[in-house]
Amino acid sequence: MTISLSPIDYAIALPFIFLAGLIDAIAGGGGLISLPAYWSIGLPPHVALGTNKFSSCFGTVFSTINYFKAKMIDVPVAVASAVMALIGSWLGASTALKISAGVLNYLLVVLIPIVTVVSLVSRNMGFNNRSHLLAIGYRVSLGCLAGLLIGFYDGFFGPGTGTFLILIYASLMHYDFVKANGNTKVVNLASNIAALITFMASGSIFLPIAIPGAICGIAGNIIGSKLVILKGNKLIKQVFILALLLLLGRIIYNLFVN
Fold first, then answer.
1. Distance CA 216, CA 126 (A)
2. What is the CB neighbour count within 10 angstroms for residue 10?
3. What is the number of domains present in the chain?
4. Helix, strand, coil: what percent of the chain each, to 5?
5. Rounded to an integer, what distance in angstroms lies between the CA atom of residue 171 and that of residue 146?
6. Between the CA of residue 110 and those of 20, 117, 147, 248, what are the distances in Å?
7. Residues 86-137: pLDDT tens digits?
8. CA dist., res. 28 & res. 191, Å (int)
9. Inside any domain, residue 2
10. Whose CA, among 9, 11, 22, 162, lies 20 to 30 Å from 75?
11. Which of 165, 174, 177 lies closest to 238, judged by CA?
């Protein structure tokens, strides 16, 4: 299939890709904006997925570097989570080939509003880093479990992976939102690189929009991560709620419109 994009297509897609990078660096969920942007300009689904992974992967590299420099990553936990997420993603993708994800759509329509309400009511969640009260071995074990479960979700279904991982780090492992977000970026980076290699091997990346998209994604991620370093937990929680609402809208669309 021949793909031809006009200057208007670029003008439509690139600002949304920048916004996606900005939101993704702050609270995850950027793919909920960037992927529809690629679809809207006529890229076939598999090419849109590969092109989106290309731009988001490069953006995540820069936000991860910024969080690492700012010492906002618990490296042993994040790396352990990343390794298990790769395994979980493979298991999830294998399962998706055999089982429909339709049931998960209905489950998430119920779960996401509950998670949103709990996040709004639990005013202290994510504002104080109490992870140090847990032994490092226990944190690594929980990180492995979180990576495996969310990796499975990513491979099986996908949308909102980073947002859900932030929720697990903040609620179950008692990180503040800043540290939870930093850890999540390491996991996202690992899974993005693995997926990117797969898409590149299959030729599912349209470079004429992927390269400027990557530049916009990098800019968004740099600005987003700098805002987190400056503004901290309050900003993350606000964007975190926005990401949950975007995810809910996407799933309702999948159920009743698409």
1. 29
2. 16
3. 1
4. 80, 0, 20
5. 12
6. 25, 12, 23, 9
7. 998 888 877 766 766 566 667 667 777 776 776 666 666 667 788 888 899 9
8. 14
9. no
10. 22
11. 177
